[in-house]
Amino acid sequence: MSHVLLLAGGSPHAHDFAATGAALAELFTDDGHAVRLFGDPDLAAEALASHPDALVVDGLWWLMGGEAYDTWRPDYAYSPSDATRSALVEYVRSGGGLLAVHTTVICFDDWPAWGDVLGGAWQWGASSHPPVGPVSARVVTDHPIVAGLPTTIDLHDEVYGDLKMCGDVEVLAVARRHDGDVDQPVVWTHRFGSGRVVVDAFGHDPVSIQHPDHARLLVQGLNWTLEAG
User: Fold this and answer.
1) Which residues lie closer than 8 Å to 212 by C-beta, 6 or more apart?
2) Tens digits of per-residue pLDDT, 212-229?
3) Please, are residues 52 and 92 in contact by the beta-carbon 8 Å criterion?
4) What would the pLDDT profile of 5-41 be if each residue is shown by its tens digit?
5) H or E element in which residue 30 lies
6) CA angle 100-196-90, nearest 5°?
């Protein structure tokens, strides 16, 4: 049985992380993993000292810049401590598996090294997404994470676009924000040090997470991070 640390939480202004965290915990528990759920990045980073087999992150911890977030900023603005940054980087670099879900690419926006770990990240002033709605993601390569899935996966979710991407990721699926848009990477893998990283930019709500095709992708993604080499 593998031991998975699941970090879910952050600003609730646009996402119900209690619900998505619970949905992910149930999904991975049903697949046979032992899941420990955390809602605080600093406490989760400390728990990495116990060497879990994989880390799953589903949250939105960021500085909350801009007038639109004035109401939320006093309670939810966040910047990771030096200890938390070091723990996260060293965990993955030394071989820990990481599955990053949805808003995780927006997290820690004052810490560029997080994007280096993930292989891609939100860039303010360039990245965007339309409102939640119908999405058609296309699988674009053969890989164990997308094995058995249809070529097109139809979800009700968001498509993040114009992310700042590293050049050494393997894109597994793409989608478009709107008619006339170019293909945007929405699922990819990345190697960081000895660690395996999977980014799944979908997962806005439990309905998306529990969609049969998406649930299979998430489980296969987590299991791929657990493989050595």
Assistant:
1) none
2) 999 999 999 999 999 965
3) no
4) 999 999 999 999 999 999 999 999 999 999 999 999 9
5) helix 17-30
6) 85
Query: pTM for the whole thing?
Result: 0.98
Number of domains within the chain: 1
Residue 201 contacts residue 153 (beta carbons within 8 Å): no
Which token pair is 213? Answer: 């095709």
Task: Quote the DSSP letter at residue 219.
Answer: H
> Quick one: 167 exposed, middle or buried, by C-beta within 10 A (0-12, 13-18, 19+)?
exposed
- Work out the burial of residue 166: count CB atoms within 10 Å of its CB; fewer than 13 is exposed, 13-18 middle, 19 or more buried: middle
CATH of the domain at 174: 3.40.50.880
Residue 64: which domain range?
3-225
Q: Work out the number of other CB atoms within 10 angstroms of the CB of residue 204.
A: 22
DSSP string, 85-135: HHHHHHHHHTT-EEEEEGGGGTSSTT-THHHHHHTEE--TTT-B---SEEE
